[in-house]
Amino acid sequence: MKDVLNCIKKYVEITEDEKFILHWKKLSERLLKGILESYIRREPETVRIIENIINNIGQFNTEEHHRFNISTNSIFIHGNKSQVEFEYYGKSTKRELGDIIFILSVVYNGRKYFEKMTINQIKKSRNVSWNFNTDSAREQLYLLSRFPAFKGAKNSIIPKKDYNLPNYSGCLGSHGLLYYPGDFALISSKQLDVILSGKNKLELANLVLSIVPNNPCLCLHIDFEECFYLLHKLIHFYPRCLRYFPFICNLPILGNSCISYNAYDFSDKYLRGVIGELIYAKGLGYNHQAFQFLMDLLESIERKGGKYKSFVQNFRKFNYNPIGYGKDKIDKKDYEFDRDGGGLGITHTIIDLREGK
Predict the structure, then answer these.
(1) Spatial contact of 183 and 38, defined as CB atoms under 8 Å apart
(2) Span 318-340, mean pLDDT?
(3) Rg of the chain's alpha carbons, rounded to an integer?
(4) Which of 54, 128, 286, 351 could pair with 76 in a Cys bridge, judged by C-beta atoms 3.0 to 4.6 Å apart?
(5) CA angle 273-276-279, nearest 5°?
(6) Residue 213 gets which letter from DSSP?
(7) DSSP three-state, residue 78
(8) What percentage of the chain carries pLDDT values higher than 70?
(9) What is the distance between the alpha carbons of residues 341 and 313, in angstroms, rounded to a whole number?
(10) pLDDT exceeds 60 at position 332
């Protein structure tokens, strides 16, 4: 476990580096540009908004010579649908799984040590409030806050396979709230569901009033190794334990934050790995089912060929630790999916910590 500890320690160190901060600011600016365009053009269709955001994030990297490299790569999967089927209070329904999947991979000594993911549903406001008074909005919130059993629907890029995903962090599913004149807040769908509690309207101020801010990371002020080994004992078999320890909430990759109030806040937390579900971790407990789902989805996207195949190949540029783990976890059964499916954006960032002890 010494290598895992060294990986996290180096991650903590680079978050204070000027080049890390530069990447954070660049990502924020690109995200804001895409959102602002949707307001200027008055885009009514969510799919166009997603495409604007993904295209503006694009592909870019920031390198600190010999120390680390950060690369962000985004792609919009063109197509008809990314719908899934699930049960909603006794009736079968179909909804989009989400609009954008944000993924963060942490690489150390040439191999992936950690990976986090959140499946995000975008909701646009003309001001700073959002309505959840339609069946589609309520069913979408139900899906991303509870993750009932689901499978890909007809004509969907999602494989027609039964998925039962835990949500240990509470942030495997999230809502991206766009607000005027062109900004972005993110909240865990699970917490959003509690805030609404039967109401049909959400105000931006509700996020501040309803959520207790995360405590600062005390691990930075006590013996780091003692803190880490305590956590290791606690979460080795029980990944859900992470959410019950506020003193690690801002610790890169092991931290857990379920809310951000603007694009800069989101980009900071996303790059530090405190937003989303831990779907892979060397030597620690993580969400195996969500990891398997992502492997299946990437396999479907790769089969579309062209730039989609290139995106997936770039995603697999680094092996998981141990080597070959990700490939071994791909379900070899040829589950049905639609190559014409899509309408989904993916943003993937790799933080390569290079060589370590």
Answers:
(1) no
(2) 64
(3) 19
(4) 54
(5) 90
(6) P
(7) coil
(8) 81
(9) 20
(10) no
- Cβ-based burial of 158 (10 A; exposed 0-12, middle 13-18, buried ≥19): buried
The predicted pLDDT at position 223 comes to 52
Q: How many CA atoms lie within 13 A of 134 on its CB side?
A: 7
Helix (H, G, I), strand (E, B) or coil at 179: strand
**pLDDT confidence of residue 284:** 80
* Residue 357 CB partners (closer than 8 Å, separation 6+): 2, 3, 6
256-285 pLDDT, tens digit each: 888 999 999 999 999 999 999 999 998 888
Look up tokens 């379900």; give the residue.
Answer: 331
SS3 of the chain:
CHHHHHHHHHHHHHCCCHHHHHHHHHHHHHHHHHHHHHHHCCCCCHHHHHHHHHHHHCEEEEEECCCEEEEEEEEEECCCECEEEEEECCEEEEEECCCEEEEEEEEECCEEEEEEEEEEEEEECCCCEEECCCHHHHHHHHHHHHCCCEEECCCECCCCCCECCCCCCCCCEEEEEEECCCEEEEEEHHHHHHHHCCCCEEEHHHHHHHCCCCCCCHHHHCCHHHHHHHHHHHHCCCHHHHHHCHHHCCCCCCCCCCEECCHHHHHHHHHCCCCCEEEEECCCCCCHHHHHHHHHHHHHHHCCCHHHHHHHHHHCCCEECCCCHHHHCCCCCCCCCCCCCCCEEEEEEEEECCCCC
Which residue do the tokens 């986090």 mark?
A: 116
**Can you state the percent helix, strand and coil of the chain, rounding each to 5?**
40, 25, 35
pLDDT at 329: 56
Q: How confident is the model at residue 104 (pLDDT cuts 50, 70, 90)?
A: very high
* Paired sense of beta strands 91-96 and 83-88, if any: antiparallel
Q: What is the pLDDT of residue 205?
A: 84
Q: Which two tokens stand for residue 183?
A: 């900004």
Retrieve residue 40's tokens: 């200027």
Per the CB < 8 A criterion, the answer to whether 191 and 211 are in contact is yes
Helices 2-14 and 224-235 pack at an angle, to 10 degrees, of 120
Q: Which two tokens stand for residue 216?
A: 């600062």
Q: At 202, list the tokens.
A: 């959400």
CB 260 within 8 A of CB 278: no
Q: Which of 159-173, 207-221, 228-242, 323-337 has the highest mean pLDDT?
A: 159-173
